[in-house]
């Protein structure tokens, strides 16, 4: 006997909201009507449509498209001790993220249609937000033999990547990009030469020397980025640099765009708001891959985000357990969690006047949706009712123990933040409201 179908999402009227839709340029005070999991009316057209609707007062707060996070590690299959789809989705909901695009570097890696199908079924059964898998570009993430791109797309993969690994062979990369072009598939790449960074623990430079730590040079990033962009020009494939971290990479991306190449890039919220000095006295929660860079590089990233050179902002969510982080800095695993803090940390850039609010929201919602061909990222009538209500000025202090992620390796522990998601809605259903658990 099959389980009964879930009841339809409630009809709801969100009132007293500052409506911000980067896709249309909307920024006005008004109402928004949700019916049958979709946006039914916006602004003046929604006013007064109270028949049978639950009234949700936003109390003057921002109502925007739900955030879309590209490239989060969720742990399943194979690393459930670090994170699960269920716990990752709880963290996402608490942070205003309504869609997660997952990394393929699981065990086994996401290199076959049946693994994509498994992830989709697990998400359907356990997730409170939308979950879309990114598939591996090469089998076993080994960088030698490309995967069946067409079959993986049919199974539901939304992009292709080898996760935190760079494909060393230009021949393999060219072949994979050629096939991806034929399917109009997005190729997402980690841009860092593994040979140049081998053994490195943090950004190469004076600060690393003072700490006595081996460095990872920025040239390793620029080298692979230049190569990949030349291959994108050669093949015509849609190419996305998953994370850029330095001024040199900003210049390379800007030139590629000026040349009309189908090239985009992302930056993590950590690289936009932190720098190498935050490592301090060997604080391993600040050990990331790529590493945090010099303050000049951080400022270059922020300017590139404001100008639209950087397309999307991501959490770079990479949970690690206590055993892998409570080690000497050079031996600790890279990575930090970020699903629950991406929005709040990003609002630091808005409050400082460095990035307009609409631009930040576009990089966290509208642009990722367009890049991956996903529904959402908009407040247009007919769009999925994936929404976030944001109090941009709410002061709070982050306590890592209160985070929903299974792992607690956040670089923002104890940070004073201003602004947070107060309600998250997925397909018309509230999955998180501040003051009560998500789900």
UniProtKB/TrEMBL annotation:
Residues 60-249 form the Dihydroorotase catalytic domain. The keyword Hydrolase applies. Its EC number is 3.5.2.3. It holds the Pfam family Amidohydro_3. InterPro entries: Amidohydro_3, DHOase, DHOase/Allantoinase_Hydrolase, DHOase_cat, Metal-dep_hydrolase_composite, Metal_Hydrolase. GO terms for molecular function: allantoinase activity; dihydroorotase activity; metal ion binding. GO terms for biological process: purine nucleobase catabolic process; pyrimidine nucleotide biosynthetic process. It is an enzyme of class 3 (hydrolase). It comes from the Bacteria. Keywords: Hydrolase, Pyrimidine biosynthesis, Zinc. One of its GO terms (cellular component) is cytoplasm. Residues 352-432 form the Amidohydrolase domain. Gene3D superfamilies: Metal-dependent hydrolases (3.20.20.140), Urease, subunit C, domain 1 (2.30.40.10). NCBIfam families: PRK09059.1, pyrC_multi. This is Dihydroorotase. It comes from Hansschlegelia quercus.
